[in-house]
Amino acid sequence: MHPKRDCYHRRSMFRWGIRVLGWAILAGLPVCAAAQLATSDHLGDPGFWPTRPAQSRTEYAGDSSCGSCHASIAASSQQTQMAHALMPASASEALQTHPNLSFQYQGDRYQIQTKDGTVSYSVSDGGHTLQAQLLWAFGVGRVGQTYLYQRSGQFFEARASYFPGLQGLGFTPGRDLGGTVRLDEAMERPVGMPEVVRCFSCHATEAMIGSTFNEANLVPGVHCEACHGPGVRHAAAMQRLLAGKTSSEKTYIFNPATLAPDDSIDFCGACHATWWDAKLSGTHGPASTRAPAYRLESSQCWIRTHDARLTCITCHDPHVPLQTNPQAYDVQCLRCHAITAAAKPTTQRPGHACPVSTSRCTTCHMPKVYVPEMHSDFTDHRIRIVKTGEPFPE
């Protein structure tokens, strides 16, 4: 256990222990699968955790400061999808490439039109038309992109989102309409401030200052200080150290690589849904593959070992673009699995050899799952032996 987290975990043992017992009894869930915490519990820790607000904007150093010492990491990080998880709607490449988007539903026509730096969203029933200017685009657009706008200080989510799988618009995930509704309901969903905070805290940096939403000055996308914490004190400390003014100095920065395996997955799960986040929100079915931390923590590989070689950062370096070649992940699988059938499991390699292949492991054991509301496939991080015709494993 990382020393900064030990105290909090002792305080939280009773809290999550009761949860584990309750779920195990009522739902028949394996106790060891629920050893992690919900993000709300992690935020009870006095130390840094993703989505925790700083108390002042002056605590942030900015990416340029980080890049002065970590040039290559800062540069490659800018190319990741996380760095582009949020943008002004007018900067959306998806909308610029498709300036005239539309789709129909039960007589209502949805349109998103991009022209001269303005993104106009409208819904018409043939007799009346409602219109708004989109402000924020969530998601880089590789799988989908969702939009928010404001009216009279209230945020609204557009009922229509862009999906590359459709090469056009469809209902925002979970927002499809089941019947006849008023035109304003067909157009939008009001978004309360708690949800606004959650959305921007995961898609932006410096989204919250204290208890105040920092829309005017937030940094779109997930950047260095979103995962490592505000860096002004760190930058000053390193400058003193490099100048020879001190031989020993606290770093004043958070390094997620020091976390224990359970906490490491939950760290990423702060925005990618920990086991408890998913369970407490009622996430289930194929859509749960959109919560990779939860699915990994539900995997027998994880439940049986809690091995440091099986955390999110084992396979995904958050500082570089996502690797999409299945063979690139084989080396990680073979760190724990025997390579030949004759080899017996050991402490270092507890996993049996695969009788089929030692190449492209993820294509069989982490299958793609089609999520209808996203019109796309998602990799299921619940590592398993897949059997033909079996139902989706919850």
Report helical residue fraction: 25-40%
Q: What percent of residues are in strands?
A: 15-25%
Secondary structure tally, helices: 16
Structural class: alpha+beta
Biggest beta sheet summary: 5 strands, antiparallel
Number of strands: 17
Give structural notes.
The protein is α+β, with helices and mostly antiparallel strands. The chain folds into two domains: 170 residues, no CATH class; 113 residues. It contains 16 helices and 17 strands. The strands form six sheets. It has a five-stranded antiparallel sheet. Strands 2-3-4-5 form a four-stranded antiparallel sheet. It is globular, with a radius of gyration of 23 Å.
Summarize the structure.
Helix content is 31%, strand content 18%. It is α+β, with helices and mostly antiparallel strands and 394 residues long.
Give me some keywords for this one.
394 residues; alpha+beta; 2 domains; five-stranded antiparallel β-sheet; four-stranded antiparallel β-sheet; 16 helices; 18% strand
Produce the secondary structure layout.
Elements: H1 3-27, H2 39-42, H3 63-67, H4 71-77, E1 86-88, H5 93-97, E2 100-105, E3 108-115, E4 118-124, E5 129-133, E6 136-138, E7 146-151, E8 154-158, E9 160-163, E10 168-171, H6 183-187, E11 188-191, H7 193-203, E12 204-205, E13 208-209, E14 212-213, E15 219-220, H8 224-228, H9 232-242, H10 261-272, H11 275-281, H12 292-297, H13 300-305, H14 312-315, H15 330-333, H16 361-365, E16 368-371, E17 376-379
Antiparallel strand pairs: 1-6, 2-3, 3-4, 4-5, 6-7, 7-8, 8-11, 9-10, 12-15, 13-14, 16-17
